[in-house]
Amino acid sequence: MLIINFKKYKQGKAAIKLAKVCEKHKAIVAVLPEDVPDVSKAIKTPVYYQYIKDKVSYKAKGTLLNHSDHPISNKIIKRRIKLAKKAGLKTIVCCTNTKRAKEIDKMKPNYIAVEPKELIGGKISISQARPELIKDTVNAVKTKVLCGAGIRTKKDVKRALQLGAKGVLVASAVAKAKNPEKALKELTKGLNKR
To answer: What's the pTM value of the predicted model, to 2 decimals?
Structure first.
């Protein structure tokens, strides 16, 4: 599973253009709420909200919650998971450590994405710098685990999967890449060659 979070890097027409590239590689895209309707019409692969607040106005496939650009409390996470489930959305809840992952696990999201804040947007991946965090989180929760932060290469992806992650969450490595197509090809090689 490969999720590309566009953050605020790609919006409007730029989001649609990048989503079409991601679609070729069967990547899930997470876009700003205002871009969900247009991106959903432009591609067939799943489109997720980057975040939701207290209502869902357009049907997407899922939502990220509590990622680095939009952190929220456990109380709000619980409320938004309930809202997402009611709207038929899958939930990916991000956190920075295993302790928080255990708290979130009790709320029964579809996925937990562990991503240490200090590695987000960097050049060293979680699977290189903090492999124990992936493994510890996988062993500590019942929910399927994804990981993110610094993921840039097929080696990063392959290692994350070996440690028990079910997929990766990527933002700047694709959304800010000079050649997103090339970046996606590199990442998907890690998914295909476990």
So the answer is: 0.94
